Amino acid sequence: MKGRIATFMVHTSPLEQAGTGDAGGMNVYVVESAQKIAAHGIEVDIFTRRTDPNQFDQQISDGVNVKYMDAGPASPLTKEELPTQISALTHCFMRHFRQLPADYYKLAHSHYWISGQVGWNVRSAAGLPLVHTMHTMALVKNQALAEGESPEPDVRAYGEEQIVRHADAMIANTDAEAAQLVSLYSACPDKVFTVAPGVDLQRFTTGGGKAAARVKLDIAPDALMFTFVGRIQPHKGPEVLVRAAAEMITHSPYLRSKLALVIMGGPSGNGSQEPQRLAALAKFLGVEDIVHFVKPCKRDDLADWYRASDLVCVPSYTESFGLVALEAQACGTPVVATAVGGLRTAVADGISGALVDGHDPRAWSSIISRLLMEPAHRIGLSLGAIEHASHFGWESTARKTLDVYDWVLSRPDEKSLKAVQ
User: Fold this and answer.
1) Domain 209-389: assigned CATH number
2) In degrees rounded to 5, what are phi and psi of residue 192?
3) Amino acid 419: pLDDT
4) pLDDT tens digit string along 166-204?
5) How is domain 3-198+394-410 classified at the CATH fold level?
6) Any residues with CB less than 8 A from the CB of 257 and at least 6 apart, and which?
7) For the packed helices 154-166 and 113-126, what is the interaxial angle rounded to 10 degrees?
8) Is residue 412 pLDDT above 70, yes or no?
9) Cβ-proximal residues to 327 (8 Å cutoff; 6+ apart), any chain
10) How far apart are CA 333 and CA 327, in angstroms?
């Protein structure tokens, strides 16, 4: 394939700090894969909504450009408010598109359902083939809600069904997600492709090791530290870890002097007050001295936090993949994660970490305690983590995505066996 693609990511800018607001793993995914695709000679224009008057189009790397569209106020909108701007976003893109030479964009690739709605409109108005990546799905999330969490609205589920029906190809992160697209959304199996996300294997490495990372971050060398990284909202499950920490102290009071739970992230979505609620919960449970809240940091610094941790925990209720798990493992840190969705692929149970069924704090406490108390076992898992993560570079993601683009542009009448898989 040669040429340029239009990528839609309208509900959050790819330049936003991951770990707070609506910015998360998808932001990393879009930028990293775009840069690798551009390295193959295909330029990528990423279209997002302007949320600040001082945002201007910019090139973020060779062949990758961020372009801002004016729709609604130049200020943040919630994901619940943003669907009202789908028509305006489509209009803004089409006004830009009509000024371009013929065949300027080869196709469109949308990420998340609101962008998919824009992509579907553009497909109809401009005739651009549409590739869509869900990242998360309403029908999947609603099957596994955290306690007190609001379900995803019907408008999202209906919107996702429309996208699946009209997209030329769907990209799933795992085979399990591909099966969900077929079973829950009636996607045509021949149009669903599995392309695993990756990890930056040059940035996320063992580096100088745990000791050096702890010196840099001013963390005690003998601390028993387990870390959560991500948006702080009920669906990501940080409460499970606070309650697990309390269980650990109850059963092993001697751990209090060394145990440290680090929660790195910011409020997001329906968890706007979640950091305060978790802090209050930690105080109520008597573990406020071992629960430490840290703001999201730059990705180079994030690698040090991974290295400094004995374990990284991902207690999500659903997860389309779990980039945090891959990044931590690439740094040599074992991961404890919920046995759901893409985490079953991102973590090799018993080899690079441990998978936990459900969200019972007692179960999490048991597994985390055992691994913290068995340094020799953690060393073995650390070696397995490095090996496991090494198979998930972004270059592989880009190559398989380009294969999907080629498949779409070839417009085959019949193709049931797909080489990209």
Assistant:
1) 3.40.50.2000
2) -110, 125
3) 43
4) 999 999 999 999 999 999 999 999 999 999 999 999 999
5) Rossmann fold (3.40.50)
6) none
7) 40
8) no
9) 199, 200, 204, 302, 303, 306, 389
10) 9
Band of residue 414 on the pLDDT scale cut at 50, 70, 90 = very low
Task: Delimit the domains of the chain by residue range.
Answer: 3-198+394-410, 209-389
- Give the C-alpha separation, 365 to 281, whole Å: 17
The encoded tokens of residue 269 equal 């979505």
Q: Is residue 71 left, alpha or beta, with left meaning phi > 0 and alpha meaning psi from -120 to 50?
A: beta
Per-residue confidence (pLDDT) for residue 271, from 0 to 100 = 53
CA distances for 214 relative to 227, 278, 308, angstroms: 13, 25, 5
Q: What is the mean pLDDT of the chain?
A: 94
Q: Is 23 exposed, middle or buried (0-12, 13-18, 19+ CB in 10 A)?
A: buried
Q: Do domains 3-198+394-410 and 209-389 have the same CATH topology?
A: yes
pLDDT (0 to 100) of residue 238: 97
Rounded average pLDDT over 52-80 = 94
Q: 175-185 and 154-166 are packed helices; what angle lies between their axes, rounded to 10 degrees?
A: 100
Answer whether 72's CB lies under 8 Å from 86's CB.
no
pLDDT of residue 270: 57
CA distance 3 to 17: 29
Hey, what amino acid is at 267? P
Does residue 224 register a pLDDT over 60? yes
**SS3 per residue for the chain:** CCEEEEEECCCCCCCCCCCECCECHHHHHHHHHHHHHHCCCEEEEEEEECCCCCCCCEEEECCEEEEEECCCCCCCCCCCCHHHHHHHHHHHHHHHHCCCCCCCEEEEEEECHHHHHHHHHHHHHHCCCEEEECCCCHHHHCCCCCCCCCCCCHHHHHHHHHHHHHCCEEEECCHHHHHHHHHHHCCCHHHEEECCCCECCCCCCCCCHHHHHHHHHCCCCCCEEEEEECCECHHHCHHHHHHHHHHHHHHCHHHHHCEEEEEECCECHHHCCHHHHHHHHHHHCCCCCCEEEECCCCHHHHHHHHHHCCEEEECCCCCCCCHHHHHHHHCCCCEEEECCCCHHHHCCECCCEEEECCCCHHHHHHHHHHHHCCHHHHHHHHHHHHHHHCCCEHHHHHHHHHHHHHHHHHCCCCCCCCCCC
Q: In the prediction, which pLDDT does 148 show?
A: 83
Tokens of 54: 């001082």
Question: Which tokens in the block code for residue 228?
Answer: 């959560």
